[in-house]
Design goal:
single chain, alpha/beta, Purple Acid Phosphatase, chain A, domain 2, 31% strand
C-alpha cells in the first residue's frame, strides 16, 4: 500500500491494522480497505440543514451538496468497488425525501458501477426509499464487521460517537475530528458537514475500548497525527 504516513509526513493517509487487517485512514475521515476494494464513511447526516430549518433553526442549506462533493473526491481517489455508509447517513427518517434533485443526481453518479451499502443508524433506522443501494444492520466481511453503534467487539468498525480530539500546546488548543483505535476495533469520525463530535476523553468513547489506552488519529490539513488518547483527555 502506498502513502504510508507515520504522523510526521504529509501524505494525507495513515496505514493501520485492525484485527490484523491492513486498512488506510484518510485525512478526510474516510477508511479504505485495499484488499477488499471497500471504502467506508460514517455519519453523513445528509439534510441536517433542512431538518433544522423545519424547526426554525437556520443553518447554511448546502450541507448535503458539500458532503456529497467531498465524498466524490474520495471515491475518485480510491475508485472503490464497494462503498459502505455506517449509519446516520440521513439526519432523520424524512431526510431522503427532502433531498434536492441535483443532490439525488450526484448520489446516483457516485453509486454507478459499484456496490453501495447503507447501514442503519439511530437517526435513519429504516431504508431510504429511492436512494439506491442495499440496506442492512451490520456488514460482516472476514475478520471485520461494519456497524453504526459500537459494541466493543474485536474487528468492529463503527460510527455513531463522532470522535474528536482536543489538543493543547503553545498556549492554545484545537479540536479536530479523529479516528480512535486500539488495534482491535476502530471508531470512525463523522464525515458530514456541520456535524459535531464527542471528545475522546469522554467515558462513552473509553468504554468502547475498556480503557483510555488507545490512539486518536487526528485529522489535520492534509495529514493525520497519531496521538495517545491520554494526551487528549482533559486537554
Amino acid at each position: 500500500m502506498a502513502g504510508h504516513d507515520d504522523g510526521r509526513g504529509g501524505t494525507g493517509r495513515t496505514e493501520v491494522e485492525i484485527a490484523a487487517v491492513a486498512l488506510v485512514l484518510d485525512c478526510t475521515g474516510a477508511l479504505y480497505w485495499p484488499d477488499a476494494g471497500l471504502l467506508a464513511i460514517s455519519d453523513l447526516h445528509l439534510e441536517k440543514g433542512s431538518s433544522f430549518a423545519a424547526r426554525g433553526v437556520l443553518l447554511p442549506p448546502y450541507d448535503t451538496a458539500t458532503t456529497l462533493a467531498r465524498l466524490a473526491t474520495i471515491i475518485a481517489r480510491y475508485a472503490p468497488q464497494t462503498v459502505v455508509a455506517l449509519g446516520d447517513s440521513f439526519h432523520d427518517g424524512h431526510g431522503a425525501a427532502r433531498m434536492l434533485a441535483p443532490d439525488r443526481d450526484a448520489l446516483r453518479v457516485l453509486q454507478r458501477g459499484r456496490e453501495w451499502i447503507w447501514i442503519a443508524g439511530n437517526h435513519d433506522p429504516d431504508p431510504a426509499i429511492g436512494m439506491g443501494g442495499s440496506f442492512g444492520a451490520v456488514l460482516a466481511l472476514g475478520a471485520l464487521s461494519f456497524r453504526h453503534e459500537p459494541s466493543g467487539a474485536a474487528g468492529e468498525i463503527a460510527g455513531h460517537l463522532h470522535p474528536v480530539a482536543r489538543v493543547s500546546g503553545r498556549g492554545c488548543s484545537i479540536t479536530r475530528r479523529c479516528f480512535a483505535s486500539d488495534g482491535m476495533r476502530l471508531l470512525m469520525p463523522a464525515f458530514g458537514a456541520f456535524v459535531g463530535g464527542l471528545n475522546v476523553g469522554e467515558r462513552a468513547v473509553a468504554d468502547v475500548f475498556g480503557t483510555f489506552a488507545f490512539t486518536a488519529y487526528v485529522l489535520g490539513e492534509g495529514r493525520i497525527y497519531a496521538l495517545p488518547a491520554a494526551r487528549c483527555v482533559g486537554a
